[in-house]
Every structure is written in C-alpha cells, then in structure tokens.
Here is the input.
Amino acid sequence: MHAIIETGGKQYKVAEGDVVFIEKLDNEAGETVKFDQVLAILDGEKATFGAPVVADASVEAKIVKNGKGKKIRIFKYNAKKGYRKRQGHRQPYTKVEIGKISV
Here is the structure.
C-alpha cells in the first residue's frame, strides 16, 4: 500500500517502512508525527484520490533524526567588474520512518 502525502510544500510517495528525508519539522527525534494531508491512497489495483485530500486518511511516522544536508556553494560574479561573492548553504531536513497508513 502506498500513499501520496504533502508536507513542507512538497509531495512524497511513501509506503510502510520507508525512510524519507522531508523538510524540517519542529519535533524532536523519537517522537511520532501524523500526516493528515493525504492526497491519494494506492492499494494494488485500487486507487483512491482526494479532492483535494482523502477524508479520514492519515499516515503515522516516527522521526529518526533532524539534520542538515550537504553544503552547496553559491558563487556569483560579474565579468570585468571585480565583483565576486561566495556563499554556502546547508538545507535542514527531518529523517522520518513511515509507520502505519490508515484509511
């Protein structure tokens, strides 16, 4: 059974037991979080789509850890002007393990 959930402005296709990296949540590691924004439930040949969400559907997940991604470098410059700017960024994330998908 799969579900399509929305969190952090993004959509994820998840199944029970999956480990997913999502946008940072304000919860601590070890806590349980419940996603109510379930857009679709896919169960073999049977599919249920919401308009916009599936009624009474939820996905429970356990937070494994909060962290930061790898550093990316942003470098801007203008040719022949002497302008150079270097900047780094590390995007925060939350690693969750999907538990029960309930309809």
